[in-house]
Specification:
The complex is a heterodimer of chains A (241) and B (264).
Chain A (H helix, E strand, L loop, with lengths): L3 E12 L2 E12 L3 E5 L6 H9 L6 E6 L5 E4 L14 H6 L3 H4 L7 H13 L15 H14 L4 E5 L7 H18 L2 E5 L3 H7 L2 E6 L1 E6 L1 H6 L2 H6 L11
Parallel strand pairs in A: 3-7, 3-8, 5-6, 6-7
Antiparallel strand pairs in A: 1-2, 1-4, 8-9
Chain B lengths: L7 H26 L4 H20 L3 H22 L4 H22 L5 H8 L7 H20 L1 H9 L1 H7 L3 H23 L4 H15 L3 H26 L3 H20 L1
Helix pairs in contact in B: 1-6, 1-9, 1-10, 1-11, 2-3, 2-4, 2-9, 2-10, 3-4, 3-9, 5-9, 6-9, 7-8, 10-11, 10-12, 11-12
Chain lengths: 241, 264
């Protein structure tokens, strides 16, 4: 049986008197591939921040199997300074900073780990390229490589396919499948693109302050959960791969 | 030997200037990376308030400037991280606030004189032996700290959120970077003057960014450009009899111009 990596135990998070995340209860297991969906204001971003440890719950408990468990890939270059000359390898080496520890220089072992991570996302030949010289999809892969370099057990990606064209999107999901297979990673992706997510993931978390759905995506499509959440008239097409 | 090096005051100016030339762009790289370069100017204006306190009480002005500037830097960091104010407005408030305190104090003490001007615009002829000692020893502290924390500061400056998620101690490290910035500002005042400190922290970095092909190269080139600017500026100041601060900053602007042409 697979172990739980992160467990939410009756977690509440409130801004003032308003519960943005209300009594949420679930766990992420070792082989999970979870899609976290919900409308704007549904608390999914807050849930994400709780998951990665940027916020602490107002009440309830979040337990993690080990420290340094999570590799986090933020929304596409939300923070990284685009104009600054920084190489792909330097970005990925950031993933080794905490592993190496304070007052220690990064070693050739760290470089090897960084290059393995770049190789895993298929960008080893661009390691000396500047970040700003890469396409949006490639930049995304560099940030995934940085997360991989820290050797996480759980990869969490925030809106990874925003502004990515369809072809790169397909490539992106193929990469995730590969990482799941080869690195035995659990993956959580937060997305508003429900139609794509439901046909890729094997478990779905749907937030509307409370956790309104937790289960397999097929039932989500067959039931009328989507219509409850997103209003009538939305059709979900089930693809058989 | 060149005539310029026969004067002990010029030796002092070159020694202090060289230390500043290395420190200012080194710190500046992290500030520019996090789009926070204006903090140098804000702290410089606050440091003038510190100088005013020194001139009034008769204490050594660099010490009072150091203390005032460090306190202000920690306060600004607190405001920024608690999100009570946006970083930008906190900087604007401290910039004018610092200057207002300085002017009021100096006015009260009837102290608008040459001595004050040397802190505003820098002055190489008034650099004392004690200034060189203070700049050298504290400069060693700043340089050593930045090198020891280089990889963490690098990560934080580019992607604070991810760095925190991975376990980088952001609060402590950001405060340390702010203290080091404050110290560099206060120490640089003697040579380039409070009004031009910010330029020496930012312009070499921006010039370096035009030609560098990695972050590491950006840091190294920025330090070299800072060094060349300070030496060129000090030579110009001596031979053309112009204020050193202005000459240093104009030299760095010249290098920025050249690097922008090279990039095209």
């Amino acid at each position: 049986m697979s172990k739980a990596l992160v467990t939410f135990d009756h977690v509440v998070f409130s801004y003032g008197s308003e519960n943005v995340v209300d009594d949420v209860l679930f766990s992420i297991k070792e082989d999970d591939f979870i899609g976290l969906i919900g409308q704007n204001g549904s608390g999914k971003t807050t849930l994400l921040k709780l998951m990665i440890g940027l916020l602490e719950p107002s009440s309830g408990r979040i337990s993690r199997l080990t420290k340094h468990l999570v590799g986090y890939v933020p929304q596409k270059s939300s923070q990284t300074e685009q104009q600054f000359p920084i190489t792909c390898e330097e970005i990925v080496l950031q993933g080794r900073v905490v592993q190496r520890g304070l007052f220690r220089m990064l070693t050739s072992h760290d470089r090897k780990k960084a290059q393995e991570a770049l190789d895993a996302v298929g960008l080893l030949d661009r390691k000396d390229a500047l970040l700003r010289e890469l396409s949006g999809g490639q930049q995304q892969r560099v940030f995934i490589a940085r997360a991989l370099a820290s050797e996480p057990k759980l990869l969490i990606l925030d809106e990874p396919t925003v502004g990515v064209d369809e072809a790169s999107q397909e490539e992106f999901y193929m990469l995730l499948a590969l990482l799941r297979r080869e690195k035995k990673l659990a993956i959580v992706i937060v997305s508003h693109d429900v139609e794509v997510v439901v046909r890729e993931v094997n478990s779905l978390l749907c937030m509307n302050r409370k956790l309104v759905y937790h289960g397999n995506p097929e039932q989500f499509v067959e039931g009328n959960y989507a219509q409850q959440m997103y209003g009538k008239g939305r059709k979900f097409i089930h693809h058989n791969h | 030997m060149l005539e310029i090096f026969e004067y002990s005051f010029m030796i002092r100016a070159f020694t202090a200037g060289t230390i500043i030339a290395v420190l200012a762009p080194l710190i500046g790289t992290f500030l520019v990376a996090r789009r926070y370069s204006l903090i140098a100017d804000s702290l410089a204006h606050v440091s003038l308030a510190g100088v005013a306190i020194g001139l009034i009480t008769g204490m050594y002005p660099i010490y009072t400037a150091l203390i005032t500037t460090i306190i202000a830097a920690l306060f600004i960091e607190q405001l920024r991280s608690s999100k009570r104010l946006s970083g930008e407005s906190a900087l604007a408030i401290f910039l004018s606030g610092g200057l207002a305190v300085a002017i009021t104090l100096i006015g009260l003490a009837n102290g608008f004189n040459v001595n004050l001007f040397s802190y505003l615009f820098g002055s190489i002829t008034t650099v004392q032996a004690i200034d060189v000692w203070v700049i050298a020893s504290l400069g060693l502290v700043v340089g050593g700290t930045i090198i020891a924390l280089y990889k963490e500061l690098f990560f934080l400056s580019f992607d604070e959120e991810v760095a925190i998620v991975q376990g980088v101690r952001a609060r402590v490290l950001n405060s340390i970077l702010m203290i080091m910035t404050a110290m560099t500002v206060a120490l640089s005042m003697r040579i380039v003057g409070a009004l031009l400190v910010g330029a020496l922290m930012v312009i070499p970095v921006v010039a370096s960014m035009q030609i560098a092909r990695s972050f590491k190269a950006t840091v190294l080139y920025a330090v070299c450009i800072g060094f060349v600017s300070v030496w060129a500026g000090l030579f110009a100041a001596y031979y053309l009899n112009i204020p050193a601060g202005g000459a240093i900053v104009l030299s760095s602007l010249g290098i920025l111009g050249i690097s922008m042409i090279l990039r095209r």
